[in-house]
Amino acid sequence: MHPLAAESLALTRRRFFGKSAQGLGVAALTTLLHGENAAGKSAPDGSFPNFAPRAKRVIYLLQGGAPSHVDLLDWKPGLYEKYGTQLPESVRMGQRLTTMTASQKSLPMLPAIRRFDRYGQCGRMLSPFLRHTGALADDLCVVNSMHTEAINHAPAVTFFLTGSQIPGRPSMGAWLSYGLGSASENLPSFVVMTSRDRENSCGQLFFDYYWGSGFIPSKFQGVRFRGEGDPVLYLSNPPGVSRDLRRGLLDDLAAMNRLKLAETGDPEIETRIAQYEMAYRMQASVPELADISTEPRHILDLYGPDVERKGSFARNCLIARRLAERGVRFIQLMHAGWDQHNNLPTQLEIQCRDTDQPSAALVRDLKQRGLLDDTLVIWGGEFGRTPFGQGDISNKLKHGRDHHGRCFSLWMAGGGVKPGVQYGKTDDFAYNVAEDPVHVHDFQATVLHLLGIDHERLTYRFQGRRFRLTDIHGKVVPGLLA
Predict the structure, then answer these.
(1) Number of DSSP helices (H) and strands (E) in the chain, helices first
(2) Which of 95, 225, 298, 404 has the CB geometry, 3.0–4.6 Å to 386, for a possible disulfide?
(3) Ordered structural domains, the chain, with CATH
(4) Residue 469 C-beta-side C-alpha neighbours within 13 Å
(5) How many Å separate Cα 38 from the centre of its chain?
(6) How far apart, in whole angstroms, are the C-alpha atoms of residue 325 and residue 289?
(7) Concatenated DSSP letters for 172-186?
(8) Kind of pairing, strands 408-413 and 421-423?
(9) Please, what's the largest Cα pairwise distance for the chain?
(10) Cα-based distances in Å from 270 to 171, 208, 264, 323
């Protein structure tokens, strides 16, 4: 084919606008976009905060599969008297159930597996399965009035992290990287680590869009650190390639990319340049970060014995503290294993044993280093579990709880949240919010507020609309703020 003919066939919409650099068409386009570039960028990274932040960074301990608020954080002693009785229709109010319990002939009430204990000077009632967390009760802000519309795992996690149940929007960490910029020269501003229970009792998957950048430039997406091998794929140079040779290759590649960027204005080319440079710096910074052998014995003991196992939740918590020290803006730990439909009596205690001590150790470690005041730690799942049982509750080893989004609990610490308080209340059945409801969008708005961001102003123009993390909803919850 003639080269000119091939060129005409290869002409894309992006190249058309990129090459139409003069004339009335570009003037009209500039007017329509109110001065924004064609990619839709509405604010440069680093243009926030809007006001003085209380937190500089976030560590989000997302417990995938949905921990049971009934068994862990929302004490309802009256349920013991209701054991085995039917959930009243006046309480259920026609709420749809998942296909896993919709066909059950009965919905028998099921109290907490273990009676709660009282912790701290605040007198917080928590499950003895969370005794390490309970020891920090006076530092925690426990929210018992969370609620969501999502009823299945992936849409619910996506809703918490992106503000929409449908994949494709930027995740919370990407929004913060975009708005606040990076505070670290040698590490990404948004890092993700995943883990799961060793019994593989829960089949929930971790999808890339949980830390994706959606329609904003991909340089803001999360970088996933792996538990085995190199923390980041292709971190090590291949045999025969020295660091000096790598530097020369990147310099030449950047020069070619800049020529193309000047020609087309494609923001993804700018992303590639930035990410190649970050990858080069990470070759030196990440191996040192992941090497916990420099930690003193008492710190390793603080996180528990599982800290020695690569890829464990405990080890990820310790690395999260090391990331926070080095200026990483958003650290997202995702741990699967909480989806206890038929193994609640056996698996819940195991799951708490694997996660309780490391979660509490992270808060303690940050506090003793003076980092907790400006680090927001969040612990919670995508929804809660039903206060009625799934399966035969008379079988002491094989029954569980179904998904429940009408009300559930999470806790936060540090970063400007009010310590030693319990916010919101549920009804006597732990089924509906009774006081001070906190919607997912309200939670997102409050997290952004703690970071000095007005959630209505952190926007990105895409397909003719300004999008934001909280969509068109959300309000800051003053009762959660110190």
Answers:
(1) 14, 17
(2) 404
(3) 45-233+296-480 (3.40.720.10)
(4) 30
(5) 30
(6) 10
(7) HHHHHHHHH--S-SS
(8) unpaired
(9) 84
(10) 20, 22, 11, 25
CA 103: distance to chain centroid?
33
DSSP code at position 170? P
pTM beyond 0.85: the answer is yes
- Residue whose entry in the numeric block shows the structure tokens 């439909």: 341
Contact between 305 and 254 under an 8 Å Cβ cutoff? The reply is no
DSSP 124: E
Cβ contacts of 224 within 8 Å, gap of 6 or more: 191, 192, 193, 194, 211, 232
Residue 342 pLDDT grade (very low, low, confident, very high; cuts 50, 70, 90): very high
DSSP labels, 424-471? -EE-TTSSSEEES-EEHHHHHHHHHHHTT--TTT--EEETTEEE-TTT
pLDDT in tens, 66-122: 999 999 999 999 999 999 999 999 999 998 899 899 999 999 999 999 999 999 999
Task: Please give the structure tokens belonging to residue 86.
Answer: 């039917």
CA 174/CA 216 separation, integer angstroms: 8
Residues 442, 455: Cα–Cα separation, whole Å: 10
- Which tokens hold the place of 458? 């952190």
The residue to which tokens 């969008």 are assigned: 441
Integer CA distances (angstroms), 243 to 27, 247, 279, 280, in order: 46, 6, 12, 9
pLDDT confidence of residue 12? 54
Show the tokens assigned to 387. 């206060």
The answer to whether 223 touches 190, Cβ cutoff 8 Å, is yes
